[in-house]
Design goal:
alpha+beta; binds adenosine-5'-diphosphate; 650 residues; 19 helices; single chain; five-stranded mixed beta sheet; four-stranded antiparallel beta sheet
Length: 650
């Protein structure tokens, strides 16, 4: 195409400006597009990174909301735990792993847990006098007598509490009086009975569990069966939170039991009891947010209900573990991990995206890490490839459109040039015969005594010029009608041989000139054809005219008419200058001339053969050329015959 453009540009300077304009139209957007693409590709990595980070931040916000919900649900579970007493709720929550410790404040439904030590109550009524007497004996070191007095109180006691206290005192006195066995028996066998389980001393402490601890101290040897029995009994009481054991006493007994029996497993609520006690001692204010405690308890977080009646305590490790379990249940983007950092926590790695949590988790950080560093590179590569393809397509489109514009402009330029040529040719062609006719007429007018023969000769020449002029005008008219698609053919059945003879007669005089040999050959029989007589005559005359025009001084022109495969053929053969293969392919194009100067001189305007082809095709026929440069040409017109060949009439 470039080569064609270049040759066109050489021929027509106007094309240069069009080309320059086109280059601007093509080059500017192409350069802009390439610049934009390279800039876009450079920015793509950053953009993809930013886009991914944004998407991940949105994801982190989702995770934060999920954690917030987790703590809300957790608090609701803790608040609404259905159990009879605060102590039972404490045990249930701690054992269920829902908190490391829980503090229930005193409420309408009962006392809180862990509780404060109850106020001491004085012993009541009659028992008071007997008790004081027994105490008097005990103070006077009359231990066994005191023990007996306490026993009497126990036996006569109307309440289980007093009876238990009396038995406890009796065992104490017997131990002091040396009757250790009896003392132990009271502690284990009597106070170990279920009916004393709920007996409490004046400060609300349960007597039986304390009695079991005393018994263990007295037994001493952990390997003795009665030690084991007693320790097991005590352990089961301590882990029974339906027993109204004050938390201080429970904690104390648990710790003591562990000291006496170090081989045994620590009670499962001991750590929680101790943590709760430390929290209560610290006097920390309760907050509904998840807040880290300070001082000794800085490793512990508290979460209190809105009304402050329940406070859950969590060690930081537990907190992290639980939140990580929540996160592990969430769907994470491929090849990413989430790190949860408590306030002040620092990540070992630089996170790809991070989010400072708000609300209950205020101060915590959610960090998202990429496990595959080339993750966003891949995404960027994909996007860059998409840009590349789009850019390439856009450039291709620009080139195609530019190509189409070039074609269009070339066609327009060629048409303009052809029209200019046509005008010039028409003027020239009309001028020549008109001038020669005027010269002949002037000569005739000026002359006086010319002989008849000379006058006849002049008139013949004038008639010849007239014919030429008419043919020229006919051609122009046909072309004009052809262009406007207005050409109408009046078809009739005609004999081809007649047509050939008529054409031969038309050119007869001209072709009879010296140096020209014309032959007419008709291969009868010939079928008739359905055609417009004048139009086919125009075809034959154009071909004969060309054969004459494009031959050297010595001409040999043959018009042959024959039938072949249901068609009638008219072949015009000359031994003139001939045509190259390329020219032969183009001779039927409008305004095409192999050598413009030669054609001009010969009186042509590049329309003859295009008119021939138009007429022949309108008659459902075809025209072809067989030619060799320097050897001559044969133009063959084929027209469909209407019926089988018949003998020509004589
Ligand atoms: P023009 O009026 O120029 O003759 P035509 O359409 O009749 O236009 O012919 C187109 C061109 O084909 C001519 O300019 C000439 O170069 C070439 N041509 C036509 N007929 C012949 C022929 N018989 N021998 C050689 N060249 C021919």
């Amino acid at each position: 195409m470039l080569r064609l453009l270049r040759t066109s540009a050489d021929r027509d300077h106007g094309l240069w400006s069009v080309l320059a304009l086109l280059s601007v139209v093509v080059l500017v957007p192409t350069v802009c597009l390439l610049w934009f693409m390279s800039a876009a590709m450079q920015n793509e990595r950053l953009a993809v990174r930013e886009k991914l980070a944004e998407a991940y931040r949105a994801h982190l916000a989702g995770l934060e909301a999920r954690l917030e919900m987790h703590w809300q649900e957790r608090l609701r579970t803790i608040e609404t735990q259905p159990a009879a007493t605060a102590a039972e709720r404490f045990a249930f929550l701690v054992r269920g792993g829902l908190a490391d410790a829980v503090i229930f404040g005193q409420s309408n439904s009962g006392p809180g847990y862990p509780d404060s030590t109850p106020v001491q109550e004085p012993p009541a009524g009659d028992a008071g006098a007997a008790w004081r007497a027994a105490e008097q004996l005990e103070r006077s070191n009359r231990d066994l007598e005191a023990a007996a007095a306490y026993r009497v109180i126990a036996e006569r006691s109307p309440t289980i509490d007093l009876a238990a206290r009396a038995l406890q005192a009796a065992s104490r006195c017997q131990a002091r009086g040396g009757a250790k066995r009896d003392a132990l028996k009271i502690l284990t066998e009597e106070l170990g009975q279920p009916r004393y389980r709920l007996a409490a001393d004046g400060r609300g402490r349960l007597i039986a569990p304390s009695a079991q601890l005393l018994a263990l101290e007295m037994i001493g040897d952990a390997s003795r069966p009665e030690f084991r029995r007693t320790a097991d009994r005590l352990r089961s009481w301590l882990s029974d939170y339906s027993l109204p054991l004050p938390s201080v006493q429970r904690r104390f007994l648990m710790r003591q039991l562990l000291d006496l029996d170090p081989g045994a497993e620590a009670p499962d609520t001991l750590a929680a009891e101790e943590l709760a006690a430390r929290y209560l001692d610290s006097g920390a204010a309760r907050t509904p947010d998840l807040v880290r405690l300070s001082g000794e308890l800085r490793d512990v977080w508290q979460l209190a209900s809105a009304d402050g009646t329940v406070t859950a305590l969590f060690r930081e490790g537990t907190l992290l573990e639980q939140m990580q379990a929540v996160l592990a249940r969430q769907e994470l983007p491929a090849d990413t991990t989430i790190e949860l950092l408590p306030p002040g926590g620092v990540s070992q790695r630089v996170p790809f995206a991070r989010l400072q949590a708000r609300g209950r988790l205020d101060g915590w950080t959610l960090a998202q890490h990429l496990e595959r560093s080339n993750l966003f590179d891949d995404a960027a590569e994909r996007q860059i490839a998409a840009y590349g393809w789009t850019g390439a397509l856009a450039i291709l489109l620009i080139l195609v459109v530019a190509g189409m514009i070039v074609r269009l402009v070339r066609r327009q330029l060629r048409l303009t040039r052809m029209k200019n040529d046509l005008l010039a040719t028409v003027s020239h062609e009309l001028k020549t015969p008109l001038a020669s006719m005027r010269l002949l007429v002037d000569t005739l007018l000026e002359g006086g005594e010319e002989d008849r023969q000379q006058v006849h000769e002049y008139l013949r020449l004038i008639a010849q010029e007239n014919v030429r002029l008419s043919r020229l005008v006919d051609n122009f008219l046909t072309f004009s009608r052809m262009e406007r698609n207005k050409q109408k053919f009046e078809r009739a059945e005609i004999a081809p041989d007649e047509l050939a003879r008529e054409a031969a007669a038309s050119v007869g005089e001209r072709f009879a000139a010296p140096g020209c040999r014309f032959e007419l050959s008709i291969a009868a029989p010939l079928p008739p054809i359905l055609a417009d007589r004048d139009a086919i005559l125009t075809v034959l005359l154009n071909l004969l005219d060309n054969a004459y025009k494009y031959s050297e001084e010595q001409r040999h022109i043959v018009l042959t008419t024959y039938a072949e495969n249901g068609s009638v053929c008219f072949a015009v053969k000359d031994d003139g200058i001939g045509l190259s293969v390329r020219a032969a392919r183009r001779v039927f194009e409008r305004f095409y001339q192999v050598d413009q100067r030669l054609s001009r001189r010969a009186g042509g305007c590049g329309l003859g053969l295009s008119i021939v082809q138009f007429i022949v095709q309108a008659h459902n026929g075809s025209v072809a050329v067989d030619s060799q440069p320097g050897k001559g040409s044969t133009f063959t017109v084929r027209l469909p015959a209407t019926q089988p060949a018949r003998r020509p009439s004589a």
